[in-house]
Write a structure and sequence with these properties.
By secondary structure, this protein is of the alpha+beta class. The chain is built from eleven helices and nine strands.
């Protein structure tokens, strides 16, 4: 609690709001999957204070990326003060209305239009390599190994033999090849309904962007439309994928840019295979959050992620061997898990 006391004293020096008679108070706010802790002040207006351990969080990257995104028109929290040595940040409060809390069949088209407008702004940012590391085959491959280490071996206690290792290596190569074919843009890397806020003016607030990179153009789109926390019918997803492809073409025409995009079927394949990479990684991350960090609640989200993986794997011949191995070797172990529910119906809303 010493860090929290120090944070409160520091916020008292720098907060630009009006203090109530009772004095400054910081109320915990639900944080992200990292090591940051967030607190809302009782000032007018309220502000968000963050306790971000500098040995575990890259606070300079957070601040610099926030500045770059704000310059590009993306509504990220303004940074009012920062203490890098102690890992303290004081930033704008964008409210508490997450997209996940308000999305419905009736408003999803409108809200996703707004989210995609913000995504286009992110993708149009200059690709400064000092801010946005290259999201290429090496990093993408490392992320896929989270699946084997934490989900397959860690959570399911399945050990890979030589045949399975070779199978996965070949399958991962297909996913990495597809990612490498795509135009490379700035990628938020976790662009979904828990990191998007509906603002009072109808705008979109974007948070949790400190791991942004320069990588495949379909990555953030699949994070948004095949969200690990909410599912939409496949027809809706595919319509939006094609709609976004058209928006990219329209934007490049207006800005006079030369953007090489493929036909609809190829773009959808990019999207699908990028989703396989992301969702295999997420299976590993959610398992690690439970096994290493004690955040077992993330296991409840695994069935929907499994559904995304297995539905897409059934679409493409190059994923046949992976799909069969998954069903024959992993599914029997998955069924034994306390968090299990049939993946075929995961994410369905009553």
């Amino acid at each position: 609690m010493a860090d929290l006391t120090a944070l409160q004293n520091w916020v008292g020096e720098f907060q630009p709001g009006q203090l109530p008679a009772a004095g400054l108070q910081l109320v915990p706010v639900t944080g992200d999957a990292g090591f940051r802790s967030y607190f809302r002040s009782n000032t007018q207006p309220p502000f968000i204070a963050a306790l971000a351990p500098p040995d575990q969080e890259n606070n300079p990257a957070f601040v610099n990326i926030a500045i770059a995104m704000a310059r590009g028109g993306v509504h990220v929290p303004k940074i009012f003060a920062v203490n890098y040595e102690q890992g303290f940040l004081l930033q704008e409060d964008l409210g508490a209305t997450l997209f996940l809390d308000v999305l419905s069949a009736e408003n999803q088209a409108q809200l996703y239009d707004r989210a995609e407008a913000a995504l286009l702004q992110i993708q149009a940012l200059p690709s400064d390599s000092t801010l946005f590391p290259h999201y290429g085959s090496e990093l993408l491959r490392c992320e896929l190994e989270l699946f084997t280490e934490w989900f397959v071996s860690g959570l399911l206690d399945v050990q890979l033999d030589t045949w399975a290792r070779d199978l996965l290596d070949d399958f991962f190569a297909v996913l990495l090849s597809s990612a490498g074919e795509q135009p490379q843009v700035v990628v938020h890397r976790d662009f979904h309904s828990r990191n998007l806020l509906l603002l009072g003016d109808g705008g979109v607030g974007v948070i949790d962007f400190q791991d942004a990179v320069h990588g495949p153009i379909s990555y953030d789109l699949v994070s948004l439309l095949r969200d690990c926390y909410i599912r939409w019918p496949q027809t809706v997803v595919e319509q939006r994928v094609e709609g976004f492809r058209c928006k990219l073409l329209d934007q490049s025409a207006v800005q006079g840019q030369v953007v090489t995009l493929p036909d609809s079927a190829t773009f959808l394949r990019w999207f699908d295979l990028m989703g396989l990479q992301r969702h295999l990684k997420v299976l590993g991350i959610f398992s690690r959050l439970s096994l290493r960090d004690g955040k077992a609640r993330y296991l409840d989200d695994l069935p929907l992620v499994l559904r995304y993986v297995l539905e897409v794997a059934q679409k493409y011949p190059e994923a046949d061997d992976f799909y069969r191995w998954f069903i024959e070797r992993l599914e029997p172990k998955i069924i034994e898990q306390s968090w299990y529910q049939p993946w075929q119906s995961a994410g369905e809303r009553l």
